[in-house]
Amino acid sequence: MLALPRLIVEQAGTGGPLATLLGAIPVTLAWLAATKLSRWFPGRSPVEYAPKVLTRPVGWLYSGALLVMKILITALAVREFGAVVRTAVLPSTPVEVTIILLLLTTAYFVRYDQQVFARVFEIFFPIMLAPLTTICLLALKNAHAYYLFPLLGTSGLGLLRGAVLATTGYVAYMVALFLLPSLNRPEKAVKAGLVGIGLSTFVYMLAVSATLAVFGLEETKLLVWPTFELIKNTTVPGFILERLEPAFLGIWVAAVFTTVAATYYATLLNIAQMFKLRDHKVMAIPLVPILYIIAMAPPDVHTLYQAGITWGLFGVTMNVGGPVFMTGIARLRRKGATRSAAPTQ
Amino acid sequence: MPHRRSRRVALLLTLILFLTGCWDRRELEERSNVLVAGVDVCDEGEGCEMVVTRQIAIPGQIPLGGERSGTRQADTVVVMRTPAANAADSLARAQADLNWKIHIGHNRMIVLSEAFARRGVAQYFDYLRRLPELRRLLWLAVAEGRAEDVLKARPALEDVPALYLASMLDDAIKGGRLPQVNVGDFMIKTSNRGEEAVVPILRMAGPDQPELAGLAVFCGSRMVGKLTPEETATFQELQGRRKGGEQLEVTLSPKQNATVSVYGRGAVYRLQWVQGQVRVQIALELESELIRLSPGQTGSDLRTLELIERGAAKMVEERGAALIRKLQHEFGADILSVGERVRAYLPGAWAAIPDWPAAFAGAKFSIDAQVSVRRTGMSMD
Questions:
Q1: The pTM of the whole model exceeds 0.90
Q2: For residues A162, A170, A310 and A88, what is the CA-based torsion angle, rounded to 10 degrees?
Q3: Which chain B residues touch A243 with a CB distance below 8 Å?
Q4: What local confidence, expressed as pLDDT, does residue B323 receive?
């Protein structure tokens, strides 16, 4: 969220906002495919139906890849959090401390079941969405319309690259795939997912557009965390709060927590289902040191973002390519419940 | 059960230990808060690259809430002068002279001396850009003469000199007399390829009397020239900064003249790319009110107003054209962001232009101004 505008603008130039919108398309397709699969295999998650669709060894390999990707994405998100806190907020607090505290809090939280999980997210959702939108709108006071043009950017290839990068911003949608089997009313899943993707597209586009409109093309590329700089560049009219960063950072900690918790939780489900464990909880604590080691692996911020891009693309291939590919195969091999049958419940 | 409960209580009590604070705890009084920083070039024979002067708040002496408790102004801040090799070095050297860690998070303003600005500020701003605690909304000014003198000034109207300087700029910007210029804006304009930055100039009118004296024009990160206060008003008109602030003296006939006060502005840029040349049509709209009319013909009937409007429009057009000529040929600095507009709306042309400053100097401008006099004050006459 903090670095995304820079990563996209580096590739797509002023086409950044459009690239963000385009990036949502593959995710939407994947969501449609995944909900179809979950209707063909009611009550089963991707890890459970992949071996049936793709044959056992390939399915297992795919589930393994999903697992690796989730672990990496969780670890990198934790590390980014550590890097921002260390650079911008608490310069003398060791990164290790921030990271371990975040991991432990998350590990504690993900031991609960899906209901608690869903409710916490429900509470956090408006607390995060409202201020972020407000800040972006307030920032527009210093915006120039001409910074946003040309809307298509200057190179088609760049736009495409930007779109692919933007897709990595949506990979956390995979968490929803693991929640699909436990929905009370699965028939509503398609719509709910589309609303979710739509909302995150809106927020991402707002952030990218606001950054670009305030800073312009070249300045955006120079900022490590453009969204953060955007907040530093914004005041609330009336000067009640002259600096918004502290308020924003509070919200941002919640945002990171939910992201990490979501991917962490999906990782646990992935493990539990792959190895047919009865309970996902057992792995919550053992995973902490593994995540910690991976999080601490990148030696510097540049390597961190390089790794983020590489593994993000791997994640996109697995998460977006996977479901679409599997729907095709499932149809060819005629696997899954009969399509005419009513959803079993 | 009691056993389990006591274990929980013990756990909770342990957790309290984590709440006591963290590595970064620092009380407000345990900081040396810099309020204004000034940057000068070194005097001859001083053997350094730059001199940074810092106005540092004396803890507990900054009056809170406007109550003047008889504290003499000289007591609210100390001014420290540090010659150094570069910005980072200057901070380290200044730190050696202070008991508490220097904190720049409360800095209100950076003043660059003209000599320093003319030498180029790229290196200094690279340093600022990397500082996480730096505020992008920090005010920025160029001092005519030495920055140190601006920092040493003790304006009588405000207890804290830094606040006097900050509110001076803030109010001028709110009133439309100055363009919005803070450190963030400066960084943006020096980074983006199709625009150049301006910075307000402070001049010492008396030992304790700083005054605003127009704008410093930058080309890249080097100061290349100055705009007078009148040219600054014209610059604001050309930019179409909505809030107006200037007065226009209009001559109607050899005997009669009038003053209108501009309160609203608007500018629309139309760009064309014709045979390798950028053509810019600027349509200006100014809203004003009549504040003075020399006696002569009977007052503000429609014909007189029309004459004033036409005279003012002609004046605005001429001033604008003169300023643009100066920017094109004397400074070679596109402070009107024309280049960014070309990049945005004529991407084909932008790709074909190898060097924007040269193309800017060769661009053709035409200005069409329209001034409306909306009110005549409290007098019908």
A1: no
A2: 90
A3: 135
A4: 93
